[in-house]
Design brief:
Mean pLDDT of chain A: 95
Number of domains of chain A: 2
Distance between the termini of chain A: 28 Å
Helix content of chain A: 55-70%
Number of strands of chain A: 4
Order of helices and strands of chain A: EHEHHEEHHHHHH
CATH class of the largest domain in chain A: Mainly Alpha
Oligomer: homodimer
Largest sheet of chain A: 4 strands, mixed
Largest interface: A-B, 42 and 42 residues
Structural class of chain A: alpha+beta
């Protein structure tokens, strides 16, 4: 029995692959591990049955035999630890790749995720423009540092790792903002991630759910 | 040579132990690993020498021989993996403890950290009250879920783990807000963490830096 993950029944981003199941799908594809998907509705996510899997009523979750996990970062790390291909063998290089996983989720993602939320929830507030500018400033500070560190390397620390996988999924959320293009090496980095066959398979799988739902 | 971490030369919270070196100090104390501390000023944090250790110019960093790490979550995980006492031996229980580490930093911390920032940076903005209320709403949603999951257990999943360590450090930031007290089991959970001898040693060590600086 392959592991089962959960994903949105109805894609909030219309199949752009920005939901957090995308990073888990991509990880599975990179390591060549088949997986099943169970779709959940927004209302079912808040019900006790789903909350038993995910205390905060979100997706994705991960079920494999007796093991239940939540938090996309934890699930990607679990997949990376159990299978080869997403973390270096060398202990120090492995610790550094894991540091980049935390950097993606804890340092780079928060202002980027806030920006999407503000664009949805605060568009009609009187402070909207000022708040968006402030967030864009925070985002640019992170991207500038990240761009400086990446330089002309292909990936953040040697070979492609779970750290790159998470960072690319975080940066992809800026695709329609125009901000990423101010940092050509980061835009190329994201494109490099999106060009990986494993990414393409994961993207197609989540898009197929949206396409099927649109037809239904 | 013990590992060296970095911490603020001048404590922004006046020794309340809310900076992110506190969680790393606590982890060291839980596993009984001695460590050295190098203090850095706010200006030095942005200089190339420190940025070589931390691409985003923050603290803490971790240096041990050839290995350099950044991101407090990654450093705590590294300490927990290298030493006994912060992660269960059973593989599934270990994966769940790591999931709580990610939950603390990625799901619970963001609105709590934003609240501190907004109180400092946006106090004179026209939207201040409304923004604070919105953040308090987000925080209460997370705390309510967390409180429901914790129930009357001592720790989030069996014995005390690195997941609890990070969650307690995240929740401590609410100590002066009055919000934590609305969830008595969470307030007791934080108190249980703060009562651990390892926490007390770590707290005293960071407080000593503030006290010494105040006298100097």
């Amino acid at each position: 029995m392959p592991p089962t993950i959960t994903a949105f029944e109805s894609s909030p981003d219309r199949g752009r692959g920005l939901a957090r199941d995308m990073r888990v799908r991509w990880a599975f594809e990179e390591v060549g591990q088949p997986y099943d998907v169970r779709l959940v509705s927004f209302s079912a996510m808040k019900e006790p049955a789903h909350r038993a899997l995910h205390p905060f009523g979100q997706i994705p979750t991960y079920e494999e035999g007796d093991l239940v996990l939540f938090e996309s970062g934890a699930i990607v790390l679990h997949i990376a630890v159990r299978h080869g291909g997403l973390l270096p063998d060398d202990a120090n290089a492995r610790a550094r790749a894991i540091a980049w996983m935390f950097a993606a989720l804890d340092t780079v993602e928060p202002p980027i995720f806030d920006r999407s939320l503000v664009q949805i929830l605060e568009r009609n507030e009187p402070w909207y423009e000022q708040r968006l500018r402030a967030l864009d400033g925070s985002i640019r500070k992170r991207l500038s540092d990240l761009s400086g560190r990446l330089g002309d390397a292909d990936w953040l620390d040697g070979a492609f790792s779970a750290g790159d996988l998470l960072m690319v999924t975080v940066l992809r959320r800026l695709n329609s903002s125009g901000i990423l293009e101010e940092y050509p090496n980061l835009a190329a980095y994201v494109a490099r991630g999106e060009a990986r066959p494993a990414f393409k398979r994961a993207f197609a799988a989540q898009l197929a759910i949206f396409t099927a739902a649109s037809k239904g």
